[in-house]
């Protein structure tokens, strides 16, 4: 399973997002140090990475929340929480669900 967090230096919530994802990885029995953290430094990188804002969190290449038609670029991202509120961080339950879904889909490849 690949878990990645893309961030931009202008985002004040990047450090908190990294810790949140690592906590959920730990809770799911995954090694939190395997989180791939990548800084997006310019517009070319944002285009190449399909970066719609910081923090962007993906599990096995799938964004936690479908970005729709959000423009790519160096900006802060907002997430819609399960209760409908807007937040700079995703809902903890969305992270846990994405990890569980990816782990479940990977079991077919597990030889045990």
How many runs of DSSP E, i.e. beta strands? 6
H/E series, N to C? EHEHEEEEH
The main pleated sheet reads as:
4 strands, mixed
Counting helices, strands and paired strands, the structural category is alpha+beta
In round numbers, the mean pLDDT is 93
Structural Rg: 14 Å
**Within the largest sheet, what's the order of strands?**
2-1-3-4
Query: Tally the helices: what do you get?
Result: 3
Helix fraction, binned, reads 25-40%
State the separation between the terminal residues, measured CA to CA: 16 Å
| Low-confidence runs | 107-112
The best one-word shape is: globular
Strand content: 15-25%
Brief overview:
The protein is α+β, with helices and mostly antiparallel strands and 112 residues long.
Task: Provide keyphrases for this structure.
4-stranded mixed beta sheet; 6 strands; 17% strand; globular; disordered C terminus
Describe the model.
This protein has about 110 residues and is of the alpha+beta class. The protein is built from three helices and six strands. It has helices spanning about 15-25, 45-50, 90-105, and strands spanning about 5, 35-40, 55-60, 60-65, 80, 85. The protein has a four-stranded mixed beta sheet. It has a two-stranded antiparallel sheet with strand order 5-6. Helix 1 packs across helix 3. It is globular and about 35 Å long. The two termini are about 15 Å apart. About 25% of the residues are buried. Residues about 105-110 have low confidence and may be disordered.
């Amino acid at each position: 399973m690949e878990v990645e967090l893309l961030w931009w230096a202008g985002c004040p919530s990047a450090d908190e997002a990294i810790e949140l994802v690592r906590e959920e990885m730990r809770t799911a029995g995954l090694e939190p140090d395997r989180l791939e953290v990548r800084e997006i430094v310019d517009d070319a990188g944002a285009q190449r990475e399909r970066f719609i804002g910081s923090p962007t969190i993906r599990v096995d290449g799938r964004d936690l929340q479908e970005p729709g038609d959000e423009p790519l670029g160096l900006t802060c991202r907002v997430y819609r929480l399960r209760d409908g509120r807007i937040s700079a961080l995703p809902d903890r339950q969305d992270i846990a669900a994405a990890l569980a879904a990816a782990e479940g889909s990977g079991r077919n490849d597990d030889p045990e």
